[in-house]
Design a protein that fits this description.
By secondary structure, this protein is an all-alpha fold. 84% of the residues lie in helices and 0% in strands. The protein is globular, with a radius of gyration of 16 Å. It has helices at residues 2-25, 31-84, 97-117, 123-154, 159-176. The chain has one domain (2-176).
Length: 177
């Protein structure tokens, strides 16, 4: 259980960053949409980790080679899009479901790789680990969104530039490290 908690914390740090950036960009997002955003990130993280066991033998080498590039392009694209949307900052106050899933995929590729790596675990422990990882991601996403919201409300005029820059820096970090 401790291993699953530590994995959950480590794997959810990218989701925390994305949630922080999203909270900055969308400070007036409704509680329901924020809940949906965190749920989508947690659900994708849960599914990717759980899928690791099922497809480990077939795709490990392929996914391992492109995971950084996939996350880089998704987060880079979303970061640039947020910066370009800055002119509409007061108009757009909702995150579309497709964007939520793109954030979820970009931040969960590592969970798929970790799922591959520990695919030999007992099935019950594996499922419990996936649940813990999803729960930790949900909590971290909510926390990041709330912190980001406070920043976004304070610096409304440049909020989307800040959030876009956070996503671009995260994309570069994933590609380089």
């Amino acid at each position: 259980m401790l291993t699953a908690l530590v994995l959950g914390i480590i794997l959810s740090l990218d989701s925390l960053s994305v949630s922080l950036a999203s909270g900055i960009a969308y400070p007036f997002l409704s509680v329901g949409r924020k809940f949906m955003f965190s749920t989508v990130l947690a659900f994708v993280q849960f599914c990717f980790f759980l899928s690791g066991q099922a497809i480990a033998k077939f795709t490990f080498y392929f996914i391992n080679g492109i995971n950084s590039w996939l996350a880089f392009f998704l987060l880079g694209f979303l970061g640039v899009k947020m910066i370009l949307e800055n002119e509409q900052a007061n108009v757009i106050q909702d995150i579309k479901l497709i964007r939520m899933f793109l954030f979820g995929i970009a931040t969960s590729v590592d969970a798929l790789i970790v799922g591959f790596g520990i695919s030999g675990m007992n099935k019950d422990n594996y499922f419990l680990s996936a649940v813990v990882i999803g729960a930790v991601t949900f909590v971290f996403s909510n926390m990041g969104f709330n912190i980001g919201k406070a920043i976004g409300l304070k610096w409304m005029n440049i909020a989307r530039y800040i959030s876009g820059a956070i996503l671009l820096l995260l994309a570069i970090k994933i590609l380089l490290f």
